[in-house]
Each structure stands twice: as C-alpha cells, then as structure tokens.
Write a structure and sequence with these properties.
Blueprint lengths: L1 H13 L4 H27 L6 E4 L4 E3 L8 E6 L4 H17 L5 E6 L5 H11 L5 E3 L4 H5 L8 E5 L5 E6 L4 H9 L5
Parallel strand pairs: 3-4, 4-5
Antiparallel strand pairs: 1-2, 1-5, 3-6, 6-7
C-alpha cells in the first residue's frame, strides 16, 4: 500500500504540492462548489413566505395577492437611525414606481410600540402601508429577522430576489426594481 501512495504522490511532489494539500483540495473544492451552488439556489429560488400584513389602518394585505408585482418589504424600528434615514428613499421609490406596479410595505418590529410607529407615520407622512407585527409572525416567516433595517425585494414571480441587511444602496435597489417595472 505504501508503494502505491509513493507512486501516486510522485507527480504531485514534482509540482511542489504535498500529498496532503492535494487530498485536501480534492475534498474542499467540490465542497466549496456545492456550498456556492446551494447558496445561489437558496437566494434565487426561495419563494417569499405566504404571509398577511396588518397595517396601521386596519387593512389586511396578503403577500400572495401581490404576486405579479415587485414588492419591497422593509423591516424597521422607530428607534433605528438607519431605518429613519431610509424613509425618504422608500417614499421616493414609492412615488416614482407605485403607479408602475411597485408595492412597498414597511413592517415595524414586534418590540416597537405601536404609538411610536403611528407617530413616525404621521410625522413623516409615509405614503406606503406600514404593518404592525405584534406577534412576530411576519418577522419569523422571513427567516427570523433580527437586525434593522432588513429589506427584501420580492420579484413578480413571488421569489426573494434581494435581501439587504443594514444600510442599503439606493441606486443598487433602484436598479433591481427597474428590472421588474413595466413600461
């Protein structure tokens, strides 16, 4: 058995690669490729969860009913400075693209007091629906969102096209949205 190893290791050693490195590479490269493929498939084919949102106005919005349109979902909190900075960005996107099919729903985190959410809604005159998630059902359905802001872009087929945790790039987001906008 040792002779077989020595014979098969000879060409590898001539190239300056140890047998251990070669064996490790034969395991790690396919494993790495499998992980990358799995991540790619997860984020390109993961359907958005079948949830309904309860808005500040008492309206119920079923995400499934919005299929055929791009939907931007923002998980935010009234005490999150970056979330508050995003409100003008989302307001502009809503004003620019809502009549072309874009829907935006802001989901207040379960710990956010409804009176704070309502105050910001009125103060900032937010034109898109804001949902309360008091029982954390929506937050849980979207992979247990923990960090604010977290933004999801759902494509018209109902799949998650983009997930942004933390600060977003408005131009990148706009570019993604424009790929789904009609006319």
């Amino acid at each position: 058995m040792q002779k077989l190893i020595k014979l098969s290791a000879q060409p590898i050693k001539q190239r300056g690669i140890s047998l251990q490195s070669a064996m490790l590479a034969t395991v790690l490269i396919p494993l790495s490729i499998a992980v990358i493929i799995n991540l790619y498939q997860h984020y390109t084919t993961q359907l958005a969860p079948n949830v309904s949102f309860s808005t500040l106005t008492g309206e119920k919005i079923a995400l499934q009913a919005l299929q055929g349109k791009p939907v931007l979902i923002s998980f935010w909190a009234s005490d999150c400075p970056e979330c508050l900075k995003e409100i003008p960005v989302f307001t502009e996107l809503y004003q620019q693209y809502h009549n072309k099919g874009l829907e935006i729903i802001a989901v207040a985190m379960p710990y956010d007091p409804p009176n704070h959410v309502l105050a910001i809604h009125k103060e900032r005159q937010i034109p898109y629906p804001i949902a309360l998630d008091l029982d954390a059902e929506v937050t849980h359905a979207f992979d247990d969102v923990q960090v604010t802001p977290t933004t999801f872009l759902i494509n018209p087929a109902g799949a998650i096209d983009l997930k942004i945790i933390g600060k977003l790039d408005p131009n990148e987001l706009k570019t993604h949205i424009e790929t789904f906008i009609k006319g």
